[in-house]
Design brief:
By secondary structure, this protein is α/β, with parallel strands linked by helices. It is built from 13 helices and twelve strands. It has three domains: about 45 residues, 434 Repressor (Amino-terminal Domain), CATH 1.10.260; about 130 residues, Response regulator (Rossmann fold, 3-Layer(aba) Sandwich); about 130 residues, Rossmann fold, CATH 3.40.50.2300. The radius of gyration is 25 Å and the shape is elongated. GO terms for molecular function: DNA-binding transcription factor activity; transcription cis-regulatory region binding.
Length: about 325
């Protein structure tokens, strides 16, 4: 096996000290180092295919320069997009990201947290599933820095980054009301997760007695979306609009509405949540609540890195959203 190229190897070939090579390759004291010498060191390191010894670095710094990221469902466009933003932001700060997808499973979240802790990640960014309060308390006990993203638990003090879900839903409903819709069906998951319940609360508070809520089990989503829409459309006073609180629920709703032959927005207006390419491909491009994905991802990394460096006070950030108004909710006059 070919021996590993070390800093000593580079130093001997260039004719400088190992300390100087270390300074250059770690970008330290660059103003005090001759530029030609620094360029020669880097050129030699590249020619010899030098790779830093991460284990040695970790032992010296007591850090692995890795972050563990657990998303709810990597197949969901929201999760994959936020993961890419977090990965890019972490890389800018010298960190690598290890990914895991919980698939909304409390047990899988526990297993991933255990795996990442055993791999000695410097911190975690987690979108916790339902009933995972014990996992948060466990993380607090271990002392490992972590940030909750998208989902947070008001009764447990912790770092988190999220949106104002209540007002986000309010924007969607006010838009529908302004366009003449009075009876709105709300499709959401049957869950204890605070952020989704805030979306329902924000809609119901505006609609009052005109609101109808269809609850969907996460493991029976398509079946329950159909039942909810059937309920909304039954009777003498059917809904004239539907607000779905996630992108996947919106897509399932659109599929079923399309199969019924109902025309959007002429017979039924639709507003969704989160952006996805599927909304653009629908014959009536879908109005949706847009989350500030870049801000969410970047802020979660910043809070985590601050926590890694200081282990200080708890920090949270709540961002506003934007309603992207398109054809699915506006009847041509």
């Amino acid at each position: 096996m070919k021996s590993r190229v070390s800093i000593k190897t580079i130093a001997e070939q260039v004719g400088v000290s190992t300390a100087l090579v270390s300074y250059v390759l770690n970008n330290k004291n660059e103003n005090r180092i001759n530029k030609d010498v620094a360029a020669k060191i880097r050129k030699t390191a590249k020619e010899l295919n030098y790779q830093p010894n991460q284990i040695a670095r970790s032992l010296k710094s007591q850090k692995t320069q890795t972050i563990g990221l657990i998303v709810a469902d990597i197949a969901n466009p929201f999760s994959s997009q936020i993961a890419r933003i977090i990965e890019d932001e972490a890389k800018k700060n010298g960190y690598s990201v290890i990914f895991g997808s919980s698939d909304e499973s409390e047990k899988k979240t526990h297993d991933l947290i255990t795996l990442f802790v055993n791999r000695q990640v410097d911190g975690l960014i987690v979108a916790m599933p339902e009933h995972s309060e014990d996992q948060i308390l466990y993380l607090k006990q271990t002392g490992i820095p972590f940030v909750l993203i998208d989902r947070y638990f008001p009764t447990i003090p912790a770092n988190y980054v999220a949106i104002d879900n209540y007002n986000a839903a309010g924007k969607a409903i006010r838009h529908l009301l302004a366009n003449g819709h009075r009876r709105v069906g709300i499709i959401s998951y049957k869950t204890s997760l605070h952020h989704l319940n805030e979306r329902v609360r924000g809609a119901v508070d505006l609609l009052k007695e005109e609101a109808m809520v269809g609850e969907v089990r996460i493991d029976h989503a398509q079946e329950d979306v159909i039942k909810a829409i059937d309920k909304f459309l039954a009777g003498d006073n059917p809904v004239d609009a539907i607000f779905a609180t996630t992108n996947l629920l919106t897509i399932d709703g659109l599929k079923y509405i399309n199969s019924l032959g109902l025309k959007i927005p002429d017979q039924l207006a639709v507003v969704g949540f989160d952006e996805t390419d599927a909304f653009d491909l629908f014959y009536a491009p879908v109005t949706y609540v847009k989350q500030p994905m870049t801000a969410l991802g970047q802020k979660s990394v910043k809070i985590l890195l601050d926590a890694i460096e200081s282990n200080g006070s708890i920090e949270s950030a709540i961002f506003d959203t934007e309603l992207i108004i398109r054809k699915s909710s506006v009847i041509p006059r």
